[in-house]
Amino acid sequence: MAGLKMVRTDSVAASAGADLRAENITHMFDTDDGALLALKDVSFTVEAGTFVGLVGPSGCGKSSLLLMMAGLLLPTDGRIAVRGETVSGPLPEDIGVVFQESSLLPWKTARENVEFPLYLRGVDRQVREKAALKMLDLVGLGEFTERRPHELSGGMKQRVAIARGFCQDPEILLMDEPFAALDEQTRMTLGDELLHIWDQNKKTVVFVTHSLTEAVFLCDKVLVMSARPGQILKEIDITLPRPRTYEMMATETFGQLRAEIWELIRETQAK
Amino acid sequence: MSMRTAGGNDDRSGWILLLKNPLVLRLACLGMILAFWEIAPRMGWVSPVMLAPLSATVISGVTDFGVFARNLGVTFGSLALALLIALGGGGAVGLLLGSVRPLRTTLLPIMSSIYAVPLVVVYPVFTAWAGIGVESKVLFGGLYGFFPMLLATAAGVRTVDGGYMVAARSMGATRFQMIRHIMLPAALPSIMSGVRIGSAMTAIGVVVAEMMAATAGIGFLITQNRTMFNTAEVYFGVFLVVVLAGTIDWAVSVIERRAGSSYPRKVRTL
Fold it and tell me: Is B269 part of any domain?
């Protein structure tokens, strides 16, 4: 059974990513006070192999949008399409998610957590073990593979979560504020490492964040959303060259881009 | 080494240290109880009808060894079957009720209410249905442990962190994989407490059933000897029930240790 499934064992540097489109997405939530319009006519395209950020004020529907892209929530109207095909449920081989707070299973070791998506798919033990160890090594946790989550620091846990995302080896990786719970320094380090890994396999990444610095530093393009009902206010191309370096943060371009995003968010929040 | 011994009586502090050892204290307490057990009836402090001396109890156990062994076997056999109903059935139904929302909201409150009813009152009905053989006490014991197991399992499953479920779903887990790899392990601590309470309750149920109406078993022996004022035999029967409870407790801890070996000491609890 397991042998029949084609799985790329060299999970790094294999897939080139797929494109993802949101087409006229409108979403209503049922609340006690009646229907609440959460997202209004949201459309955007994420080109294959690009790193796209999603920023916006709290409660603007970023996380709902991400759940829709993951096939975990169906929009009231409109559709999400991967390679032109509508997403109507989880597509683990196409789309992976790295969640906000570490959703690692506490009863599994780091390695078992990382290989879990491959296990669910029926991949052979040796193959998935090898892939998991390789990913853990890549995120700098080669010595902690047999530790359980409660024995790891917050930063290490998110590293495991990222390793799990990449080990699942989807074409598109959705990240829902993966570094939100971390301190500034750890956050910067992990962002840098994430770029390093991404550089090797160029998956399509959609990265939801609250940190504007993080958004500019990591992304090719940043989608700025309005306050509720969430709409795309502007798509900002981050013109900084790659590979990104910390020195770029001190440049005028970086400052301008960051200021431009902030201006948009400030305005929409004020309304 | 310590400052305490300086200028103090070394001999005495040695005694104190010994008495601070919980194992020593426990054995000392046990010894005193056993001594009281032997001495009190012999000295006439309590009537021998109320309490047979320890030695008489042991002697009755040795002389009637065959009878006790046979009846203990009957009780253990009934208990094994009853545990199957209580833990297996209760666990399965608890899993179902805990995870399927409509069932949970309609049936779970009813189950909690039934758990609050002293089930002893329905035992006569059981004997009417199933006679006074093995069947009725297996059913009764099983039912006794069924509800605590069901409720603990349902509670464990219901409170599984939704984040794990969403993550597993995004990774493409099937419904079965979800139960096997997320719900069961996440609910394990709660399920194990259900096993602990459920098996103790089942044992109580079986013995009580035997005491009320049965043709064999330790509970039956206790009742029978009590009506004949064979106090020593009654106490030996009680002793065997203690052994029975101890065996269950030991078995549960073994399971707990094996099941919990892959579980962190401190889990994010709910």
Answer: no
CATH of residue B155's domain is: 1.10.3720.10
Calculate how close chain B gets to A91, using CA atoms only, in Å: 7
Q: What is the pTM of this model?
A: 0.77
**DSSP symbol at A24:** E
Q: Is it the case that residue B73 has pLDDT exceeding 70?
A: yes
Nearest to A103 among B167, B185, B267 (CB): B167
What pLDDT, in 10s, does the model give residues A236-248?
999 999 889 888 9
**Are residue B179 and residue B70 in the same domain, yes or no?**
yes
Structural domains of chain B, count: 2
Question: In Å, what is the CA distance from B45 to each residue of B49, B52, B174, B227?
Answer: 12, 12, 69, 23
- 3 state SS of B40: helix
Residue B270 maps to a domain: no
State chain A's mean pLDDT as an integer.
Answer: 88
How many Cα atoms sit within 13 Å of B24 on the Cβ side? 7
Residues B230 and B138 both lie in one domain: yes
Please report the ipTM that was assigned to this predicted complex: 0.84
Q: Do B267 and A150 touch (CB under 8 A)?
A: yes
B267 part of a folded domain: no
- Which residues span the domain enclosing B245? 54-260
Residues on chain A touching B168 (C-beta within 8 angstroms) = 120
User: Degrees (nearest 5) of the Cα angle A113, A117, A119?
Assistant: 90
Decide if A103 touches B, using CB distance below 8 A. Answer: yes
